[in-house]
Amino acid sequence: MKGIILKGIGGFYYVRTEDGVIECKARGKFRYDSMKPMVGDEVDIDLDKNNKGFIVKIHERSSQLIRPTVANVTQAYVVFAIKHPDINFDLLNRFLVLCEYNNIKAKVCLNKVDLCTEEEKKEIKDKINDIGYDVFFINAKKKEGLDDLNSGLKDNITVLCGPSGVGKSTLINDFIGSIHMETGNVSEKIGRGKHTTRHSEIIEINEGYLVDTPGFSTLDMNFINKDELKNAFPEFDDYIGMCKFRGCNHYKEPGCAVKEAVEDGKINKSRYEFYIKTFNEIQDGGNKKW
Ligand SMILES: Nc1nc2c(ncn2[C@@H]2O[C@H](COP(=O)(O)OP(=O)(O)OP(=O)(O)O)[C@@H](O)[C@H]2O)c(=O)[nH]1
Ligand SMILES: [Zn+2]
């Protein structure tokens, strides 16, 4: 039987299958393996003669986050506030690069729309669309503008990320609150303390899954090397193979198609500058902690 791990506590894994959620243990081989089951894993399970579940196979992962520890996240809602705190574009770019690096599709959610004017909205939207990402304006406090984000959960494992104070917890509660109201199971999710350590979990919602804690906290600094960095800018993809030198870093090399595209205004200049700044932060040859 196939399923997906919703949560893991104390050696037990709760696996969503066609026949409901089944409590499973991992077969011995996984305990000694570096590849332990993770929340989000697609697994095969067997039932023994006492109807106890065992994980017998873990399918290949498309992505693997460390904090929270969740496999196969497909999508990130990258949450920033329009104001309070103001958008820090450097930080936004970091989140976007981390998403690309982790093979996760990013959608930019701009919260606290109640605090800005239409002109301000347009200006920010143009800027973010220009670097190639969709923008969703929301008011998490009043649960406004959430329809597209709610329907976007379908068929995805979604994590919310973004800096402190932008409304991530409010938004997670908006999503989870609606589902728990539907199922009448409100109590479990109320009063989730900020400082209590808890296991992460993916919550079934709108035919998809939502990671119930924010990911990529600003403290999460991933390892990334220069080639991985280059590949984390989707706007460079159109120019792959067009630079004069193979393995061009789009930096000081002559005949660089990416640099030409920047000069022609086809690639956003501030994103390119962010690329160069980050490139310089990464030491030659090896991985450097951001
Ligand atoms: N004006 C306004 N305030 C909001 C909105 N959404 C959330 N807030 C407020 O913003 C503050 C921060 O919200 P949180 O949900 O705690 O933010 P967070 O991103 O989870 O913050 P951390 O836990 O520090 O990472 C709270 O006081 C919220 O009430 C909104 O749409 N408009
Ligand atoms: Zn180049």
From TrEMBL:
Subcellular location: Cytoplasm
CDD domains, per the entry: S1_YloQ_GTPase, YjeQ_EngC
Molecular function via GO: GTP binding; GTPase activity; metal ion binding; rRNA binding
Cofactor or coenzyme needed: Zn(2+)
Binding site for Zn(2+): C243, C248, H250, C256
Enzyme class: hydrolase
Assembly behavior: Monomer. Associates with 30S ribosomal subunit, binds 16S rRNA.
Summary of the function given for this chain in its UniProt record: One of several proteins that assist in the late maturation steps of the functional core of the 30S ribosomal subunit. Helps release RbfA from mature subunits. May play a role in the assembly of ribosomal proteins into the subunit. Circularly permuted GTPase that catalyzes slow GTP hydrolysis, GTPase activity is stimulated by the 30S ribosomal subunit.
The protein's name: Small ribosomal subunit biogenesis GTPase RsgA
Organism field: Inconstantimicrobium porci
